[in-house]
Amino acid sequence: MSDTPDRAPHRYVEMANELREAITRGEYQVGDRLPGENVLMQRYGVARATARDALAVLRHEGLAVARPGAGVYVTSRKRLVRDSTARYSRRRQARRRS
Question: Which fold has domain 11-97?
Answer without folding.
Answer: Arc Repressor Mutant, subunit A (1.10.10)
